[in-house]
Structure formats: C-alpha cells, structure tokens
Amino acid sequence: MSLAFVFPGQGSQSIGMMSALAKASPVIEATFAEASAVLGYDLWLRCQEGPLESLNSTQCTQPAMLTAGVATYRLWCERGGAQPKLMAGHSLGEFTALVAARTVDFKTAVDLVKYRGELMQAAVPPGQGAMAAILGLEDIDIDEACSEASQGQVVEAVNFNAPGQVVIAGHATAVARAIALATAKGARRALALPISVPAHSSLMQPAAEKLRIRLESTAFTPASGVAVYGVDVKTHTGAADIRAGLVKQLYTPVYWAATVRTMIAAGATQIVECGPGKILTGLNRRVDKNRDLKMTALEDPQALDDALATAKLS
C-alpha cells in the first residue's frame, strides 16, 4: 500500500476549524503561534472567533489554510504516522505539500502565501472578482456558459475537480451571468464560493509576474523519496521547476481529478486529506469509486486514529 497525502486550498476554511484536533495535542496551537509571529496578528484567534469576512479575505485565508495543513501533518508525524510516498495540494495546498515534504521552510512559506494573497487581492479589488462551483454539467456546457457570459469580461473554468464538478472564476458580474446560464443549461447546482479573488483565472497574470520575482529569492530544497504533484499534474524536482510551477498555477487551471488519477496510477492506495474539512476527500471519491481505495480526512481525533491504524496495516 502506498500512502498519499493531499492538502486543501481556499474554500475549506471555517470559524472554529482545527478546534477538535487542538484538543488532541498542543502541536496544533503551537504551529499557529509560529505563523502568528510571522503575520503580526493572532491567527488562531482569527480562525476560532473570526470575523468570517476577515478569515475569508485571501490575505488571511491563505496563511490560515497553510498553517492548518502543516499543523495537522505535524500531529500525524507526532503520532508516529508513516511518511507518505506521494503528496499533492489543491491550489494553495501545493505550498502546504512543499512544506510537509521539507522543500520549503514553514515560516518562509507563511510569509510567501501572505504576500501571494496580497498580490491576488490587489490584482482584482474586493467585490470585483468571484469564483463559483458548477455541479452536474458537462465541461463543454460550462465552457459555453462562460463564453456566453463573458460579454467583454473574464469568466473561465479554472478548477476541474471531479466528474461533474468544475469551478469557474473571473469578474464578479460575469461569474453571476455564467451561474444563471449554467443553471439554465441544467446544472444540478451552481453556487458562489467564499473566496475573495478569481484564483487561477487570467486576471491573476499580473500577480503571477510579481510573485515570480519574490520566488527568485526563495530557497527550495527538493525532498528525496516524496513525489509532490503540482496543479499541472507534474512533479517538480529542481528549484527552478518548483518556482516556475508556483507561478504558473496562479493563473492557470487546477486539474485535480487528473492529479488524483495520476497518484492512483502511481500506486496510491490510501489517500489522506490533511487540513480542515473534507472537501478533497469528497472529490477524490467521485474521481475514483474503487472501494479498495482508502480515503480519509483528518478532521478530528477519531479520523486521525482511524487513518493511523489503516496506515499501520499496510
């Protein structure tokens, strides 16, 4: 059995997240304290008490999700959990995967994703960008809805998460038009996401170019024995390739379904979601319905115990 870890991105955050796991070990709040020292505010308090609009602001969401994923992974290691052979992160989660693989220092990554969030928000001011999930519609119909809805603005399919689950992003008014058109085309559901920027759309190109400059001075040390997949469904082994991948992922689509299939093809038989919530686990089950595949989200102590027990049996 090959163990794979996946790390969620924006959209999985919620007030009170990580509180159950925090009761299992002081490593959770200690990790948030490290991040708080970098950020200059109490990140744990923000995650526990809000306000929600502040947590959902991408400048806060990004370091919060990174820290939550790293804290959960540290707890896994503290409990004697096996090292995964494969890792992947959904969008922002790719940074978390790189920290877990010891490719980039945690505090460096906290500062980096805070800056990334600031760049993304500056590229498209609050209220002017949006993201939405479209469920139960073929990719070609979503592309048509985006094309019809654009009307001189940007709205694009940016996350291919699972069969029948695609996320679109762009100008807020264009996204709203696309939601209406997708619904008219028979989408089972179309809903706005709690993300304040149109991530992975072409509107992020200016932010990507500024991020490229920052990454040039960021140290990356590729880890041996762990394959870390990026949003382009590739593993990046050298520092230059890692930097290029992190720039590209800011303004190009996430092919999550393809990433999961690639990890399974590479031998993954247990896929553990490391971070708050269980969004990726739900998507992963839709990507591959093989009941022999073990898929778990480490959202509470019981789930952690179950995943540890399964890994030990392999």
Describe, in plain words, how this protein is organized in 3D.
This protein is an alpha/beta fold. Helices cover 50% and strands 16% of the residues. The chain contains 14 helices and nine strands. It has helices at 19-22, 27-39, 43-49, 52-55, 58-78, 93-100, 106-123, 139-150, 172-184, 205-215, 239-251, 256-265, 279-287, 301-313; strands at residues 2-7, 86-89, 129-135, 155-162, 165-171, 189-192, 227-229, 268-273, 294-297. A five-stranded parallel sheet has the order 7-2-1-8-9, sandwiched between helices. Strands 4-5-3-6 form a four-stranded antiparallel sheet. Strand 4 (155-162) and strand 5 form a beta hairpin. The termini are close together. The relative contact order is 0.18. The model has no long low-confidence stretch (mean pLDDT 95).
User: In which range does the helix fraction lie?
Assistant: 40-55%
How are the strands of the biggest sheet laid out side by side? 7-2-1-8-9
The radius of gyration computed from the alpha-carbon positions, rounded to a whole number of angstroms, is 18 Å
N-to-C order of helices and strands: EHHHHHEHHEHEEHEHEHHEHEH
Q: Could you give the distance between the termini?
A: 5 Å
| Major sheet description | 5 strands, parallel
Number of helices: 14
Shape: globular
Strand content: 15-25%
**Uncertain stretches:** none
Q: Structural class given helices, strands, pairing?
A: alpha/beta
Oligomer: single chain
Arithmetic mean of pLDDT: 95
Q: How many β strands by DSSP?
A: 9
